[in-house]
Amino acid sequence: MSTNPEFLEVNPLFARPGEATLAPRYTLGDTMMGPDTAFQIIHDEIKLDGISRLNLATFVSTWMDDQARRLYTESFDKNMIDKDEYPQTAAIEDYCWHIIADLWHAPEPRTTIGTSTIGSSEACMLGGLAFKRRWQQARRAAGLSTEKPNLVMSSAVQVCWEKFCNYWDVEMRLVPVTDEHPCLDGHDLADYVDENTIGVVAIMGVTYTGIYEPVQEIAAALDEIQTRTGLDVPIHVDAASGGMIAPFLQPDLVWDFRLERVHSISTSAHKYGLVYPGLGWVVWRSPDLLPEDLIFRVSYLGGDMPTLALNFSRPGAQVLLQYYLFLRLGFEGYRLVQQASQDVAMYLSKGIAEHGAFTLVSDGSDIPVFAWRLAEGHTDKWNLFHLSDRLRARGWLVPAYPMPDDLSDRIVQRIVVRNGLSLDLASRLLTAISEETAYLDRLDGPMPVEEHQPGFTH
Ligand SMILES: *Cc1c(COP(=O)(O)O)cnc(C)c1O
């Protein structure tokens, strides 16, 4: 027996002839291991992970049907970048973003421009880069400084925007969330926007609460700023979740290319696009909004291939899965799937609201994601991190975390309802929440608080 963490203990668990008894963890082993043994070790080790279907922290798909799995198995060897070698996969990528451009009301979906990405993060980077480059070109042409670009957004943006600003030297101008303005809604925008503003980010489905930012009101505030100052500031809509919900569940909500100020929109196909990770999409309103000098043309794979991406090689299988779903579900199928998730979210948020110990922060009526906090004065013995721990012991992963500035003293807990969380499972979850809350309420003394780090999965 070795309890040395540097080594992996193999025998006597598998008792296969010729297998090593110890394998180093952090260096490459000297020799080979039987494939069955290697498989078994990893298969067993990941049992310590949470169960993905009960992971209500993640926005990312954890279920697809068997046909999708078959397609995935047939195509996981396809590199998306090999467009000359896999022209049909490349063509299918094109169909997909044209379908999405049409869903988002691009004025001319057939002639606009878009691409697949590894996820929303890369898609947002590309949207941000197009803003920065266009701003630089306009400033240079006018003989003005390009020293200090800034990007305006809510303090509740996803971390990818902090990365964008950090990696590409753009000042991040955060509009704080408050009780009066729980998201970016256009108020006081003039205090944040100036001649160095490359754009404004609007979020369709705020990560912390699931609510939509009113893109139309943000656009109206920017129209007003333009009338007064002449500054023409574009919007990128980070529709990581909402981009594949709003077209189906809130078709009359005007948030997309119906607003002229919206230059680009991104979404995560692996969230409510219903595809396994990792795939995202970004589409521009029209090709002129994407500076041509961000597009590379490479010839060394054969042909002349335009590429706009941060990555080079990337899995192509997810693109095929997206097209599978577009064919399989169509508009009505997507609407039904998303409606089912929303029904479950509304059922759960109603149960939480009626419980008594909690106050809803949102109810799941935008994207099927909602958050709550402890009701004022309910208890001084426990907090939502403790409830999260209790639920984890029963297999449910329901994260608690602090809100962003200016609400960072407020802890909330959130559920992301995805395809695959049935009403039946949801009712068991409500029971678990009730039982664990009752357990915590029965405690004589307070729970310890030192160990509780805010655990926050995007
Ligand atoms: C999830 C999310 C992202 C990042 O998306 P990935 O696909 O995980 O890279 C960006 N913005 C918002 C609003 C998100 O919810």
From TrEMBL:
<dbReference type="InterPro" id="IPR002129">
    <property type="entry name" value="PyrdxlP-dep_de-COase"/>
</dbReference>
<dbReference type="GO" id="GO:0006538">
    <property type="term" value="P:L-glutamate catabolic process"/>
</dbReference>
<dbReference type="InterPro" id="IPR015424">
    <property type="entry name" value="PyrdxlP-dep_Trfase"/>
</dbReference>
<feature type="modified residue" description="N6-(pyridoxal phosphate)lysine">
    <location>
        <position position="271"/>
    </location>
</feature>
<dbReference type="GO" id="GO:0005829">
    <property type="term" value="C:cytosol"/>
</dbReference>
<keyword id="KW-0210">Decarboxylase</keyword>
<dbReference type="InterPro" id="IPR015421">
    <property type="entry name" value="PyrdxlP-dep_Trfase_major"/>
</dbReference>
<comment type="similarity">
    <text>Belongs to the group II decarboxylase family.</text>
</comment>
<protein>
    <recommendedName>
        <fullName>Glutamate decarboxylase</fullName>
        <ecNumber>4.1.1.15</ecNumber>
    </recommendedName>
</protein>
<dbReference type="Pfam" id="PF00282">
    <property type="entry name" value="Pyridoxal_deC"/>
</dbReference>
<dbReference type="GO" id="GO:0004058">
    <property type="term" value="F:aromatic-L-amino-acid decarboxylase activity"/>
</dbReference>
<dbReference type="GO" id="GO:0004351">
    <property type="term" value="F:glutamate decarboxylase activity"/>
</dbReference>
<keyword id="KW-0456">Lyase</keyword>
<keyword id="KW-0663">Pyridoxal phosphate</keyword>
<dbReference type="GO" id="GO:0030170">
    <property type="term" value="F:pyridoxal phosphate binding"/>
</dbReference>
<dbReference type="InterPro" id="IPR010107">
    <property type="entry name" value="Glutamate_decarboxylase"/>
</dbReference>
